[in-house]
Amino acid sequence: MTMLDTLSAATDAEFLAKLVAITGEKHVINDAHEMALYLSEPRELFHGSAICVVRPGSTAEVAAILKLCSETSTHVVPQGGNTGLVGGQIPGQGPYREILLSLKRLDKVREIDVSSNTMTLEAGVTLLRTQQEAEKVGMLFPLSLASEGSCTIGGNLATNAGGTAVLAYGNARDLVQGLEVVLADGRVLSNLSKLKKDNTGYDLKHLFMGSEGTLGIITAAVVKLFPRPRGLSTAFVGLSSPQNALKFLDLALARGGNDVKTFEFISRFGIEIVVRHGQNTRDPLSSQHNWYVLIELGSMSEASVEDTMMGILEAAAEAEIIEDAVVAASLDQRADFWRLRELLSELQKFEGGSIKHDVSVPVAKLPDFLDEALAAVAQRFPGVRPVPFGHLGDGNIHFNITQPVGADKDKYLAQWDAMNTVVHDITLKFGGSISAEHGVGTLKRDLLPAIKDPVHLALMKTIKQALDPKNILNPGKML
Ligand SMILES: Cc1cc2nc3c(=O)[nH]c(=O)nc-3n(C[C@H](O)[C@H](O)[C@H](O)COP(=O)(O)OP(=O)(O)OC[C@H]3O[C@@H](n4cnc5c(N)ncnc54)[C@H](O)[C@@H]3O)c2cc1C
């Protein structure tokens, strides 16, 4: 039986035949077993369905698919590396006739222009490969996430990803010079510009970054490259409180300025999880502390970076802001430190269910937010084990709460919305955001009307209507 014989609906058969004509039969998948890989996501919160998975190999093929989908009112869910944490890349969550558009075959690095400090690449190139291609020419692409081996540049830009280098280099949108986007009707918005200066009207690329596939399909981008720091110094630091972590951040920035590339914050329980369940992991310091900071400096001067780090640590110890610290003595030790931070997201599951929050507040408010939110969840949900960690330098904390020891996982997770409400209310009270870097997708869609300024929300809907009047692009996500 051929693929087309297996179809029950004649309209779908005709539609699939047209897709096959665009990409070739090999790249239109509707076998349930093969599709399964694309239809669930890292947290296993969402399991989807679709007419098929289609894997175009060029911008022209994406454009032809979108034109066909527009003409047949077929909905399109774009997917890159499928590492998104809010369900945005999973079809079949609403009453829509959807295809999953995998962008992974768009995997060419089209050009690296060292003098312009740019790389032009296609949406399906993984973040790790983007970093490696930059390194080959002695440059740096600074975006860095624990999912970098799988996530794609297209997905990073569509979610405006954050990660561990935002403090020094900004979010994904700050790293983009130009964009190529296929619109809902199949037209191609081609703006692969390398220009640093171009004030000839609205800068449309920013509409698509952070739009989670609801306004257009990103097929290629011109990203910014940076000088590669010649000297790196990485330290693990133990502290008694978030208040002291904030003082340590202020001190580090005052002394290290833009050389402070990373300032990551981890609770003691977070370290325990990684040491207990991770391979090749161990406590970073000989003594135990309530809180830890992973700080990394990067400098164009190899000679001075160690001195700057030592100056920061000595001043912090003298002021009794930090309790202990160890500086990585080798690249292997640096990798050990980073492993403690990067494994944390994935190892939490070994402690049972976790209710998660990706929140941000103004940096100065972070200690007060943590005090209040930790007290509130302890009081409302006795026995829970908080694992707050994340990007303190950006005011962004993954406020994850693990179930009490021995609790029933499903019963615990059934409190997801109730706990979200407690944490989000405190976040909003401090002028924060309920989605700092992971986006909205379906996970947080229904929360937007209550928290977004009505004028802002109305403008978002107007833009969606203007760019995608038939609502074929990732329907039911974000809005
Ligand atoms: C272990 C782990 C750690 C993580 N750490 C971080 C972190 O530190 N910071 C952070 O920000 N995120 C983090 N994430 C979340 C995730 O990796 C990011 O959101 C990433 O940017 C998603 O990229 P992706 O290619 O996997 O996109 P997908 O998951 O495939 O898609 C994400 C969204 O983008 C849309 N999309 C994908 N490609 C395109 C395209 N070409 N055009 C238009 N729309 C598109 C999808 O429809 C979906 O709405 C982490 C995830 C995991 C599993």
* Proportion in β-strands: 15-25%
Contiguous low-pLDDT stretches (5 residues minimum) are 1-8
Q: Structural class of the helices, strands and pairings?
A: alpha+beta
CATH class of one domain reads Alpha Beta
Biggest pleated sheet? 8 strands, antiparallel
Bound molecules: flavin-adenine dinucleotide
| Shape verdict | globular
Strand count: 19
The CATH architecture of one domain would be 2-Layer Sandwich
The chain-level mean pLDDT equals 95
Measured distance between first and last alpha carbons: 40 Å
Q: Helicity, in percent?
A: 25-40%
Query: And the CATH topology of one domain?
Result: Uridine Diphospho-n-acetylenolpyruvylglucosamine Reductase, domain 3
Summed up, what is this model?
With 479 residues, the protein is an alpha+beta fold. It has 17 helices and 19 strands.
Structure description:
Among the domains are: 109-227, Uridine Diphospho-n-acetylenolpyruvylglucosamine Reductase, domain 3 (2-Layer Sandwich); 231-345, Alpha-Beta Plaits (2-Layer Sandwich); 352-438, Alpha-Beta Plaits, CATH 3.30.70. It is globular and about 70 Å long. Helices cover 35% and strands 20% of the residues. The relative contact order is 0.12. With 479 residues, it is an alpha+beta fold. The longest helix is centred in the middle third of the chain and has 17 residues, at 302-318. The protein contains 17 helices and 19 strands. A hairpin with a 4-residue loop joins strand 5 and strand 6 (118-122). The structure holds flavin-adenine dinucleotide.
